[in-house]
Every structure is written in C-alpha cells, then in structure tokens.
C-alpha cells in the first residue's frame, strides 16, 4: 500500500482532524508501543501499520477499507 493510500484510508475512516491526532498521539500495542507516525518513520510497512489500525479500531474502520 502506498503511503498516500494509507493516509487517505485513515482520513476516510476517522476524519482529517482526528486521523492526524490519532497518528501522532495514540500508542498502539500492535506497533510495539509506537504511534502510527513513529511506526512509519521506523520503516514499518504501511500494510502492517494499517492492519494494526484495523485491529485496534475494528468498529471504526469500515469493512470496505480492510
């Protein structure tokens, strides 16, 4: 998944403002205790990061974005 696709999905699922906050502030255990931005900066593949988001927020991410 391209990085632009990742951000588009995150914004579609959470809205632009909340997506930015989520990416910077929420630590996800599925990412080794990193935020989304930290995980991406560490070189973790966007697909892995996206799957962590879906796992952390299964009720928030629409099924078509899985």
How do the strands and helices of this protein lay out in sequence?
Elements (H helix, E strand, L loop, with lengths): L2 H12 L1 H10 L10 H6 L4 H11 L10
Helix pairs in contact: 1-2
Distance between the termini: 12 Å
Q: What value does the Rg take, in angstroms?
A: 10 Å
Helix/strand-derived category reads mainly alpha
> Strand count, sense and closure of the main sheet?
none
Share of residues in strands: under 5%
Number of helices: 4
Instruction: Return the average pLDDT rounded to an integer.
Output: 96
By DSSP, the count of extended strands is 0
Uncertain parts: none
- State the shape: globular
- What is the share of helical residues? 55-70%
Element-level helix/strand string: HHHH
Protein name: DUF3046 domain-containing protein
InterPro entries: DUF3046 (IPR021408)
Walkthrough of the structure:
The chain contains 4 helices and no strands. With 66 residues, the chain is mostly helical. Helix 1 packs across helix 2. The mean pLDDT is 96.
Brief summary of the model shown:
This protein is an all-alpha fold and 66 residues long. The chain has four helices and no strands. It is 59% helix and 0% strand.
Characteristics of this structure?
66 residues; mainly alpha; 0% strand; DUF3046; DUF3046 domain-containing protein
């Amino acid at each position: 998944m391209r990085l632009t696709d990742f951000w588009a999905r995150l914004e579609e699922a959470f809205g632009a403002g909340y997506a930015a906050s989520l990416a910077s502030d929420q630590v996800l255990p599925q990412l080794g205790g990193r935020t989304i931005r930290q995980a991406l900066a560490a070189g973790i593949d966007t697909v892995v990061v996206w799957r962590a988001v879906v796992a952390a927020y299964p009720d928030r991410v629409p099924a078509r974005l899985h």
